[in-house]
Design a protein that fits this description.
Helices cover 51% and strands 9% of the residues. By secondary structure, it is mainly α. The protein is elongated. The structure holds zinc ion.
Length: 149
Amino acid sequence: MDFPIIDLIDEEQATAWLLKHFHPEGLHCPHCGANVEEARLFGWTRKSHLRIYRCLSCEGVYNLYSGTVFEQKQLTPPEAVLLLLRGVCQGVPSAKLAREIGLSRQTVMSLGRVLQSNAEALQPSSALPDKGAETDEMFQNAGEKGDRH
Ligand SMILES: [Zn+2]
């Protein structure tokens, strides 16, 4: 059954999850590396409801998504979390995902491609064994054919 599950995700929790996921050592200015505590609140992004920080050391402006695949995507934190968890980790099809999150299928698909290409970095353990198995099979077949000759 498809239904919008976006409302079930708390925006604050989603923000905390993304912060932990993308910035395990805490949010820093992407321009000069200063800690977020050395920045002041500059405002809020209109669509994604993110705090905008202004760095006190370099005057650079940044937010939670700066330097991540979600930069300039205007997704709210719950939308970004759902895309990551459901789309990349669980492999939910983009059409179903679009309905669940309430985004256009095009947005989900274009983000899905970016996320898939980053999936190996996000989950190094799940992507590698399959590739290894395929390579082994290929070598085995090649070897068997060679022996029979
Ligand atoms: Zn800075």
